[in-house]
Amino acid sequence: MDLKSNIDLKKLPAHIAIIMDGNGRWAKKHGRPRVFGHKNGVTAVRETTEAAAELGIKYLTLYAFSTENWNRPAFEVNALMALLVETIRKEINTLNKNNIKLHAIGDLSRLPKRSYKALMKGIESTQHNTRMTLVLALNYSAKWEIMNAVKNLAQQAVDKKLVPEEINESDFENVLSTQGIPDPELLIRTSGETRLSNFLLWQVAYTELYFTPTFWPDFRKEHLFEAILDFQNRERRFGMTSDQLTT
């Protein structure tokens, strides 16, 4: 069945976020070390990014490395950071060819120098692209982001730039790392796990959640199309009733 042809291009989510999970278990299933799974996950990143751009998705956010991931074995963390550098360098031309802009969120200052330098080069090289924005969540934690936002607003209040009683949602969103990016309408998590794992907790308040048992290295365009079709078959009420939506 041609899944892509069944997608209503007028009802696409403007922003899709993905928790790319299952690399390690995929590698174990194939009798290989965890790093082998991460390397094979790059193919899924490429296919998913290109498919999203082809459809007309405006923002795609990938949860690439959480603050908790530093607790993994040093060998795996170092391999992930090296893979990040290698992948960005290899994919810059592809991103430019597809008119895709690279962006990143998270505490980027803690990244190793080589990783940070490669990331900044990728962001700079693609800054004028307009077809889609690919957002990498690196050394990211939703709790860190929210705490950072609270501290920022508190400082603005101390500096008399804000009146505490008048702080609203817009003020808060303007100090999040996703400032200027619409909240994701669809969040996909692979590998069968059904939790958010400290990812975009503020932004996913009304996001549709889609969980698939597919391990990330096996995720392909068809899996993305399936998730979007599932999304388009849901009724998004935002606290209202079905009757209110039809009147």
General description of the model:
The chain is globular, with a radius of gyration of 19 Å. The two termini are 35 Å apart. The chain has helices at 23-29, 34-55, 74-97, 113-125, 142-158, 169-173, 221-232, 242-246, and strands at 15-19, 59-66, 100-105, 132-140, 186-189, 208-211. 43% of the residues lie in helices and 15% in strands. It contains 8 helices and 6 strands, in the order βααβαβαβααββαα. The protein has 247 residues and is α/β, with parallel strands linked by helices. The chain has one domain (10-141, 182-231): Undecaprenyl pyrophosphate synthetase, CATH 3.40.1180.10. The protein has a 6-stranded parallel beta sheet, with helices on both faces. Helix 4 links the parallel strand 3 (100-105) and strand 4 (132-140).
Question: How is this fold's topology laid out?
Answer:
Layout: E1 15-19, H1 23-29, H2 34-55, E2 59-66, H3 74-97, E3 100-105, H4 113-125, E4 132-140, H5 142-158, H6 169-173, E5 186-189, E6 208-211, H7 221-232, H8 242-246
Parallel strand pairs: 1-2, 1-5, 2-4, 3-4, 5-6
Helix pairs in contact: 1-2, 2-3, 3-4
| CATH architectural designation | 3-Layer(aba) Sandwich
Strand composition percent = 5-15%
Tally of extended strands? 6
The CATH superfamily label reads: Decaprenyl diphosphate synthase-like
Helix content bin: 40-55%
Number of helices: 8
Mean pLDDT: 94
Which descriptors apply to this entry?
247 residues, alpha/beta, Undecaprenyl pyrophosphate synthetase, six-stranded parallel β-sheet, 8 helices, 6 strands
